[in-house]
Amino acid sequence: LPASAGLLALGLGLATVVTPGTLAIAYGLVLGGAQGAIRSTAAVILPRWFGVANIGAIRGLETAMMVGASALGPLAFALGTDATGGYGPVLAVAVVLALLAAAIAAAVRPPDLSLSRAEAG
């Protein structure tokens, strides 16, 4: 998760300087890597941390939140661009938020499943 958020921060940073050609390809690869990392990591972490009994409800909530964020993200960028006159400041804030997410993800420790397994068994 920290690597995915770090790749997202790198991609957002690249968006401030991207030009046609090699840099545009690098930008696409970095953003694709961030998305691929988060989707594959979530597919492994969620069942491992929460079990499979309620995975449908958890994934449903996760998907709803992602759809909502996908709808609000462009609005936030549009309002920020209108307020600042460009994408640079808005992207800088987004980079900081992605780095904050990476730091939080690095600090989170997996739950101790030994207690719940002992109670279930």
Could you give the topology of this structure?
Layout: H1 2-15, H2 22-50, H3 55-84, H4 87-107, H5 113-120
Helix pairs in contact: 1-2, 1-4, 3-4
How can the largest sheet be summarized? none
Q: Helicity level, as a percent range?
A: over 70%
CA-CA gap between termini: 31 Å
Shape designation: globular
- Total helical elements: 5
Structural class: mainly alpha
**Spatial extent as radius of gyration:** 18 Å
Quote the average pLDDT: 89
How many E-type strands?
0
What percent of residues are in strands?
A: under 5%
Uncertain spans, ≥5 residues at pLDDT below 50?
none
The secondary-structure element order is HHHHH
Question: Which key features would you list for this structure?
Answer:
121 residues, mainly alpha
Describe the structure.
With 121 residues, the chain is an all-alpha fold. The mean pLDDT is 89. The chain has 5 helices and no strands. The longest helix is centred in the middle third of the chain and has 30 residues, at 55-84. The protein is globular and about 50 Å long. It is 84% helix and 0% strand.
Compact description:
With 121 residues, this protein is mainly alpha-helical. The protein has helices spanning 2-15, 22-50, 55-84, 87-107, 113-120.
